[in-house]
Design brief:
With 111 residues, the chain is α/β, with parallel strands linked by helices. The chain is built from three helices and six strands, in the order βββαβαβαβ.
Amino acid sequence: MTQDRGSAQIPERTGALRGLRIIDFGHYIAGPLAGMLLADQGAEVIKVEKPQGDPAPIHPAFATWNRGKQSVVIDLYTPVRCNIERLLSLGGVMHSGTRITRGRKRTTTSG
């Protein structure tokens, strides 16, 4: 079965995660791969890309890692980033492959 959204025919999603929306900020390999697995299980995955585009399209597996996803371009360093808040307000889960270290004090132990 398909749903008609404008001129595009979008297949109806099936799977355990059907009805779940994922906002995907993942990049490199692990991030897009995780988003792909979520989409394979029926989640609606919206990939957020930088205006410069994804750095990985030259990789042979790029199309595989990003299958089943929708894409949106947002510059996170401008006021337009409020679009992200709008995306999240639609109900969903944010997925990111970025390690958050800002504001944390890194400590090391010597032994």
